[in-house]
Amino acid sequence: MDYTRTEAKQAARECLTGIWAATTATFDGQGGLDLAGLRRDLDRLTGSLHIDGVFCGGVMSEFWSLSGSERRRLVEVVVDTVRGKCPVIAHTGHTSACQAIELTRHAQKAGADFAALINPYYPPASDEGLYRWFETVCAGADIGIWLFDTAYSGVSLSLDLIERLAALDNVCGIKVGRDHARYLEVLARVGEQILVCEPNEGTWLENMREHGQRLFMSSAAPYLYQTPQWQPMREYTALARGGDFAAAAQLATTLDPVRAVAAKWLHGQARRTDAIASIKAWAGLVGMSGGPVRPPLLTHTHAQQAELAADLAAVGLIPGSGEAARMTRNGHPRTFA
Fold it and tell me: What is the distance between the alpha carbons of residues 38 and 26, in angstroms, rounded to a whole number?
């Protein structure tokens, strides 16, 4: 980071733009971190997929299953691999404020550009208790902090609490991992103070057009929905940022068949964390490392993997399956039961 804690809000607005990807943690056959696989994934993201930034160590990385040393090592490898290519936001949340401070300070020392904090998810706490937790952690490090409001945590940050937290010196953004209506509520309440971002590809174009969003931060969509040869999300984003929203909207519709697959495999499970197994299986089929998940999550069965592979081949995402498969003969999206 090259800003002071009181400059964090402005630094975030100046340097955080474009399409960001939330990375997974890659595991080897023995269940340990596969750092070589992680590096290959990062090279693909910053190379042929042209990702503008990386969010690491979060839900996609199964952070709850990682030891403290693994979480620290993951951040170090990500920062080292993408240095000079794109900025990094490292998730450093923990139920323990002391551990969250330690992880946040480590991310800052390792060279992450910003950190993100999920709320403590146990025990249940009042708004005042949550405020004091965030206030303590934010005061313990100088790096810019993103709030992370997600249904995965079992807690919803109230609008009043978000507004109070947005006033802290180094709180510079919030990732709203809930429905679009909630994103709009948060944007209306604190959008003038901090960046407000929704990790939903389906509303990204609307958010750029209607709400002036410049940052998609962040999900697995940039590497699940695209390949080195076919990058509609990147292309419609460029069109929208250039002001050609009509062309952007037309291009965005080519993703409808892929969104149908996502509705079946990722969003049809009430957004539970078991969707991470599908994310990693999908990622592996389209050229990323993919691989297993750690217990208590369950890795795909062979039957599930075969069904997912067939669905991805039908929309042209499996290498060699052909772009024409992305649409039916009459140009309408395919449907998936």
Answer: 6
- Which helix H or strand E contains 82, and what residues bound it? helix 68-82
Q: Are 55 and 75 in contact (CB under 8 A)?
A: no
Q: How confident is the model at residue 156 (pLDDT cuts 50, 70, 90)?
A: confident
Question: From the CB of residue 200, how many other CB atoms can be counted at a distance below 10 Å?
Answer: 19
Mark 145-184 as b/e (b = at least 16 C-beta within 10 Å).
bbbbbbebbebebeeebbebbbebbbbbbbbbbbeeebbb
CB-based contacts of 132, cutoff 8 Å, min separation 6: none
| HSE, side-chain direction, 13 A CA sphere, residue 223 | 36
The residue among 63, 51, 80, 41 whose CA lies nearest residue 290 is: 41
Instruction: Return the pLDDT at 324.
Output: 40
pLDDT higher at 122 or 204: 204
- Indicate the pLDDT class of residue 153, thresholds 50, 70 and 90: confident
Residue in the block written with tokens 């693994």: 70
Gap between the Cα atoms of 216 and 208, Å rounded:
9
Compute the Cα dihedral for 45, 47, 50, 53 and give only its sign. Answer: positive
Give mean pLDDT, residues 202-212.
97
Tokens describing residue 322: 């052909």
B/e letters for 92-123, b = 16+ CB within 10 Å, e = fewer, are bbbeebeebbbbbbbbbebbbbbbbbbbbbee
Q: Is the peptide bond before 295 cis (omega within 30 degrees of 0)?
A: no
Please report, rounded to a whole number, the percentage of residues in the chain having pLDDT higher than 70.
93
- Phi, psi (degrees; rounded to nearest 5) at 73: -65, -40
Distance spanning both ends of the chain, measured CA to CA = 47
